[in-house]
Amino acid sequence: MGRTTFAQTVRSEEVRARREAMNAHAGAPGRWSAAPEPSTSAADRAVAQGEAWLDRYGVVTRGSIVAEHAEGGFAQVYRTLSAWEDSGAVLRGYVVDGLGGAQFASRGVIDQLRRTEDSRSGGDTPAVLLAAADPANPFGAALPWPASGSTPTRGAGALVVLSRGRCLAHLTRGGRTVTVFGPPSFDDAAPGDDAVPAEDVATVVGVLADAVRAGRVSPVTVERLNGRDVMEADTRAWVAAGARLTPKGLSVRG
Questions:
Q1: Contact criterion met (CB below 8 Å) for 235 and 243
Q2: Each residue of 15-51: pLDDT tens digit?
Q3: More confident: 149 or 194
Q4: Quick one: three-class SS letters along 44-105?
Q5: pTM above 0.70, yes or no
Q6: How far is residue 157's CA from residue 174's CA, in Å, rounded to a whole number?
Q7: Residue pair 102/80 in contact by the 8 Å Cβ criterion
Q8: What is the three-class DSSP state of 182?
C-alpha cells in the first residue's frame, strides 16, 4: 500500500526541485519590479527626441532631421531646440559650412569642435569605414552625396569610406558595386576614372583590407566600378594599391 511507482517518484523529485528554485529566489530583493509606463505626452516625446538627436548627431541640422522622417518635421524640433537655447542648455551657431544658421549643439560638443580645430594638423587623420546609415556619416542626409554617375543610398549593408571630411567611396551591400568620388570641383560633373587620385584609391583599398583582417567585413569582390563593369574600367590604381583582378572582379582581402 505504501509503495509508489517510478514515474510518481520522478514527478515528486521535479516538484521538489521547482519548489527549491522558487524558494531560493523568493528572498532576492529587487529581482522583480514594475516596468514604467510610456508617457503619452507630446511634450515628453519632443524632449526625448531632441535629447536623442543631440546625442546621435552632435550637431543637429535641418538635413539630419529631414532624413529621420520625424513627425512634425524640422519645425517641431526647431521649437524645442530654440527653447533649450533660450534656457542655455544648447547653443546655436554656424558650425558646418553650407547648412544654414539653424544648427544646434550642446556646449560640450562646441568645446570639443573648437579644441579639434585648434589642434588640427595636416594629414594625420586616418580614414574610417562606416555603415552608410551610421549617424556619423552626414552624406545622403545632412550633406548631399558628391557628384557621381550613380545614385548612392544609405541603405542597409551599404558602406562608406570617409577621410578628413570627404566621402571617398560608397559600397553597396556586399561591396559588389563601388563608387569612388573624386576631389570637390566647381561643377557637378561626375569624375571619370582618371579624375580620381591614385592616393584616394589606395586609401579605400587600405581601409577595406584592414576591415577584412579585423573581421569586420567579409572579403570584397568588386564587380562594378563607378557605373561600369570592372573589366571595362581602368583598374591600374586598384591593382597597384593591393587589389587583385580576378575573373569575378576586383578582390580585396586582408
A1: yes
A2: 677 667 666 555 555 566 777 777 678 888 888 888 8
A3: 149
A4: HHHHHHHHHHHHHHCEECHHHHHHHCCCCHHHHHHHHHHHHHHHCCEEECCCCCCCCCCCEE
A5: no
A6: 7
A7: no
A8: coil
